[in-house]
Amino acid sequence: MSMYTGVPTVKRTAVYVYQTPVRIWHWVNALAITVLAVTGYLIANPLPSLPGEASDHYLMGNIRFLHFAAGYVFLVGFLFRLYWAVVGNRYSRQLFTLPFWRRGFWSELVHELRWYAFQEPEPRKYVGHNPLAHLFMVIIITVGGLVMMVTGFALYSEQTGLGSWQDDLFGWVIPAVGQSQDVRMWHHWGMWVIVVFVMLHVYTAIREDIMSRQSLISTMVSGWRMFKDDRP
What we know:
The structure is a single chain. By secondary structure, the protein is mainly α. The protein has a single domain (23-47, 57-227), classed as Transmembrane di-heme cytochromes, Chain C (Fumarate Reductase Cytochrome B subunit), CATH 1.20.950.20. The protein has helices at residues 20-44, 54-57, 59-87, 103-116, 131-160, 165-170, 173-177, 180-211, 219-222, and strands spanning 14-16, 224-226. Strands 1-2 form a two-stranded antiparallel sheet. The radius of gyration is 21 Å and the shape is elongated.
């Protein structure tokens, strides 16, 4: 069983990897990202005006409310996930740590790139995330998520006004970046980066479940990584 963590490898048929709080966070976070992406797109590209009084419909108001509510869910989930990285098992810390100083990490990262490019006959076994997935989870979910929260709450602070906690914590972002529209542009482009990542994530998860030597999708449901053979 190939691992870059420095832990001795043994032959196993199944390993309990993702604890219940991690799995719940994963699916709640996936739902929050979906709502954020759909409502964010509609905020940037509003629907055609409806006839009658706006107060009779309040369509865009409801869309914006869903966007803000999902943003709070994403923030609370992120803080909880940070907490669980401290108290959970070692696999729960992968989202916030990247062993870039280990030569084995980079060599196995190259192997995974070759595997996804159909240049390797079979993938290696990993208990947690494989190196390529690990790298992108840290870059997109952790770093990208922080960028989206900072820019999102900076824009939200324009509505809550001076003196609100949103303005106290994130109001500095707008003048630091330039102006409100600049922050809005970066926030919007960040949405598309995450949307592309989600599509690739779903594709690779299905592909790995079919073609690799270990389970992937069912692992995030049950928590158990199932191996399809006992070869190392």
